[in-house]
Design goal:
Layout (H helix, E strand, L loop, with lengths): L1 H8 L11 H14 L9 H15 L2 E3 L6 H14 L1 E7 L2 E4 L2 E7 L2 E9 L6 E6 L3 E5 L13 H4 L1 H20 L5 E5 L4 H10 L9 E4 L17 E2 L9 H15 L13 H31 L4 E3 L9 H21 L3 H10 L5
Parallel strand pairs: 8-9
Antiparallel strand pairs: 1-11, 2-3, 2-7, 4-5, 5-6, 8-10
Helix pairs in contact: 3-4, 6-8
Length: 354
């Protein structure tokens, strides 16, 4: 009776598996049934953005810990870009990635995890406290602050459009009768027409359809007049395929913090540098700061991560011009007899580090 009473009085433990494997399978099935496939990550645009995130984190300067190796930083960036979160178990051998996890929370903060660790011969399950797990989350909302959301999930409509357009183009170039024509020829025997069709058969399986012209014009009325080959290739320009594809790509690029000008064919050096600065300063560095705070809290030391200096994401030309102007000003001040201390004071007033 005492045990039964304690079970009744014990609070019910609730678990959340919003990002678990089963939940992902159910969401994928639901998306498939409802028509929103959500597989835009298969496109080159998304993979290019993910590669930029991965490369930026792999080159980042990490101080305060040796657990965040370049390989681990690259995997964290890829997981955050595609899933919105990355979970790693802290062990004496380093950080171990988790493929699936359940989390228990209190006041919206994780308390304990049940992790699935990948192994070559099959995964294993580990239960760990929150202090033993490194959990990076991006795009969290106030409803589920313990779950991160990927940029594609936050812009699923644009991702679905990009996937739909590229899938339609792929099916068109695979199945459409590209290069096929209807060629008018004088009527001849059935055997001659069959042999002519075989001669004009396309190498991709598309066939040049040959029709007689006696049915199209009156007999004896010069049947060759007004006859010309007719194209069977679909006219994709009328469906605004290029404009739709470009708009979807630009939307996905902006969702990942990449300026669309970076992939413009006419992009020059200054545009590329500004796009790199935009990506490093406004996208990668804030995520790196979140990871640094999480690592500082879980690893027991101050961890700092810098993505700006390794990526050269600063205005080198502007600094060079400013330094040249300062040197010129100091030379002119020396000629005018102004003491060096006054020049240094003026530099400090404009917040220039000597």
């Amino acid at each position: 009776m005492f045990g039964w009473l304690m079970n009744k009085l014990r609070p019910i433990e609730a678990r959340s598996s919003g990002s678990g494997y089963t939940a992902q399978v159910m969401a994928a099935r639901d998306s498939f049934i409802s028509g929103r496939r959500g597989v835009a990550e298969l496109t080159a645009t998304v993979q290019s953005c993910v590669s930029l995130w991965e490369g930026g984190f792999a080159m980042a300067d990490v101080s305060g810990t040796e657990l965040l190796t370049r390989q681990t930083m690259a995997m964290i960036a890829r997981a955050a870009a595609l899933n919105g979160e990355a979970v790693y178990l802290i062990t004496e051998l380093g950080l171990v990635p988790a493929t699936d996890w359940d989390v228990t929370t209190r006041d919206g903060k994780p308390r304990a995890y049940r992790l699935s660790i990948p192994e070559a011969g099959g995964g294993r399950t580990v239960t760990a406290l929150a202090a033993e797990v490194l959990h990076l989350r991006i795009g969290s909302d106030n409803l589920t602050p313990w779950i991160g959301t990927a940029p594609l999930r936050r812009s699923s409509l644009t991702g679905a459009m990009l996937h739909a357009v590229e899938s339609a183009l792929g099916e068109t170039f695979e199945n459409a009768p590209l290069g096929s024509q209807i060629v008018p020829l004088p009527d001849t025997g059935a055997e001659d027409m069959a042999s002519m069709r075989d001669e004009f058969r396309g190498r991709r399986g598309s066939t040049l359809v040959i029709e007689g012209i006696a049915q199209a014009t009156a007999a004896g009325m010069n049947p060759q007049i007004g006859q010309k080959p007719d194209q069977l290739s679909p006219d994709l320009s009328r469906s605004m395929t290029a404009e739709t594809l470009a708009a979807a790509r630009e939307g996905i690029l902006m969702a990942y913090g990449v300026l669309p000008s970076l992939v413009n064919r006419a992009a020059t050096g200054p545009v590329v540098r500004e796009a790199q600065r935009q990506l490093a300063i406004w996208t990668l560095q804030p995520i790196a700061a979140l990871l640094a705070d999480e690592a500082s809290a879980k690893l027991g030391g101050l961890v700092e991560i810098d993505t700006i200096r390794p990526l050269q994401a600063f205005d080198a030309g502007g600094r060079a011009r400013a330094l040249s102007a300062i040197i010129k000003t100091m030379a002119e001040a020396k000629e005018a007899g102004i003491p060096p201390g006054d020049v240094s004071g003026a530099m400090r007033m404009v917040d220039w580090k000597e």
